[in-house]
Amino acid sequence: MTDFTPEQEGDDELYEHYSFTAVKGQQPLRIDKYLMNFIENATRNKIQAAAKSGNIYVNDVPVKSNYKVKPTDVIRVLFEHPPYENLLTPENIPLNIVYEDDDLLVVNKEAGMVVHPGHGNYSGTLINALIYHFDNLPNNSSNRPGLVHRIDKDTSGLLVVAKNEEAMTHLAKQFFDKTSEREYVAIVWGNMEEEEGTIEGNIGRHPKNRLQNTVFFGEDEDKGKPAVTHYKVMERLGYVTLVSCKLETGRTHQIRVHMKHIGHTLFNDERYGGERILKGTTFTKYKQFVDNCFKVLPRQALHAKTLGFVHPKTGKFMSFDTEIPQDMQLCIEKWQHYVKHQDM
């Protein structure tokens, strides 16, 4: 998502909502199909309606929805209104606050709550709740009030929020300098070979699917941003493994991307293919068992369990820990029961 910048066209003011540049190896593809791979929650009908209204531009020329995207085309989607995520509305949404003082608060976010507004999620976010409950929260570098870091919509767990400029600067520096401590618990597909290990690999946007990130290696290893994840096996559960992951860096989807990269996609992670049966038998009974696990845990199996940082005012190290949420705990218990009653 780009920052919106007004463009003049006659008397109308247009705002840029999206901007993409087609890769050099881009095969000819209708622009409505192309944009469906790049814009979250977009339907083909909506894209075709935008093209019909003259809102989709290629190389600064409006195009119809049957335009074929070519290598290095610059594609922009412009509308007469600013992106909705720039129009923040306070909302009375309850927050699970595990700690609060004059400088900061620590929130235990439930799965399903988006951290900040974005395409398709303009209300009901953590930020909508924060600006209702707290006045004068400081903006971060992306103009998002109070946010020091973020976790994905369907990841549950701990976030620290700054209540003043000094706390924002101090906490943001700790995350940048990698001195904050974060441990996640995840269920991943497959029985991990090693008891513990470290995954290193630059992470960036997938060149063909903008909704995913990927690890760049080989000739492309200089692309993306450096990312380091340390993992340790907590419990082996047959065709899945319960792991603890400690982040050294904080890239978007880092654990989800790194785990997929080493062949252990997160359980029920739909965006990265974990909602399919990736390990196990061909028995119908097993398929029913896994489907039941998916119903119990209808999201990726990832929880931000612990969070540690130095308090910006007192200089003391603070550490917070949470219980694994019920949906994930029930899924773990199902796998424990399955292993106990199978000859594997």
Helix content: 10-25%
Sequence of secondary-structure elements: EEEHHEEEEEEHEHEEEEEEHHEEH
Please state the second-level CATH architecture of the largest domain: 2-Layer Sandwich
Q: What is the CATH topology descriptor of the largest domain? A: Pseudouridine synthase
Query: Any idea what the CATH superfamily of the largest domain is called?
Result: Pseudouridine synthase
Query: Number of helix segments?
Result: 7
How would you sum up the major sheet? Answer: 9 strands, mixed
- Quickly count the domains: 3
The dominant shape is globular
Average the pLDDT over all residues and give the rounded result.
90
* Distance between the amino and carboxyl termini: 47 Å
Q: Return the CATH class of the largest domain.
A: Alpha Beta
The number of strands is 18
By oligomeric state, this entry counts as single chain
Radius of gyration: 22 Å
Beta-strand residue fraction: 25-35%
**Helix/strand/pairing category:** alpha+beta
Describe the protein.
The chain is an alpha+beta fold and 344 residues long. It folds into three domains: 6-81, RNA-binding S4 domain (Structural Genomics Hypothetical 15.5 Kd Protein In mrcA-pckA Intergenic Region, Chain A); 88-176, Pseudouridine synthase (2-Layer Sandwich), CATH 3.30.2350; 181-340, Pseudouridine synthase (2-Layer Sandwich), CATH 3.30.2350.10. The chain has helices at 31-36, 44-52, 126-133, 165-176, 254-261, 284-296, 326-340, and strands at residues 6-9, 12-21, 29-30, 56-58, 61-62, 68-69, 74-79, 97-100, 104-109, 156-162, 181-189, 196-200, 202-205, 213-216, 228-237, 240-247, 302-310, 317-321. Strands 8, 9, 10, 11, 12, 15, 16, 17 and 18 form a nine-stranded mixed sheet that branches. β17 and β18 (317-321) form a beta hairpin. The termini are far apart. Residues 1-12 have low confidence and may be disordered.
